[in-house]
């Protein structure tokens, strides 16, 4: 009977040790996750840079002018050949 009691006691001790380690591990991982989520500086900088580039491109009239010239050239091509060139 003593062997059985000792086996149960050891199992309880092992389980308690496992749970304590698991709780500590969970706390550590949660802290690492919070730190990683809080470190968004590089992503925010990239978003600001992207917004600036897009704003610059939206304000640039060169693209609008180039597209208009392309359409005019396609119209001339169609007028000459009877077919519109591929887009």
Characterise this structure:
- The chain is mainly alpha-helical.
- The chain folds into 2 domains: 1-39; 45-87, no CATH class.
- Helices cover 89% and strands 0% of the residues.
- The protein contains 3 helices and no strands.
- It is elongated and about 105 Å long.
- The N and C termini lie far apart (88 Å).
- 0% of the residues are buried.
- The model has no long low-confidence stretch (mean pLDDT 91).
What's the helix count? 3
Q: What is the radius of gyration computed over CA atoms, rounded to a whole number of angstroms?
A: 34 Å
Query: Structural class, from helix and strand content?
Result: mainly alpha
Strand content: under 5%
Q: Percent range for helical residues? A: over 70%
The oligomeric status of these chains comes to: single chain
What is the element string, with H for helices and E for strands? HHH
- From the spread of the alpha carbons, the general shape counts as elongated
């Amino acid at each position: 009977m003593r062997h059985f009691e000792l086996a149960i006691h050891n199992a309880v001790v092992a389980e308690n040790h496992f749970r304590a380690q698991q709780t500590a591990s969970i706390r550590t991982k949660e802290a690492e996750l919070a730190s990683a989520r809080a470190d968004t500086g590089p992503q925010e900088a990239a978003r600001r840079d992207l917004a600036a580039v897009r704003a610059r491109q939206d304000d640039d009239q060169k693209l609008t002018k180039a597209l208009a010239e392309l359409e005019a050239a396609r119209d001339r091509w169609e007028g000459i050949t009877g077919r519109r060139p591929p887009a």
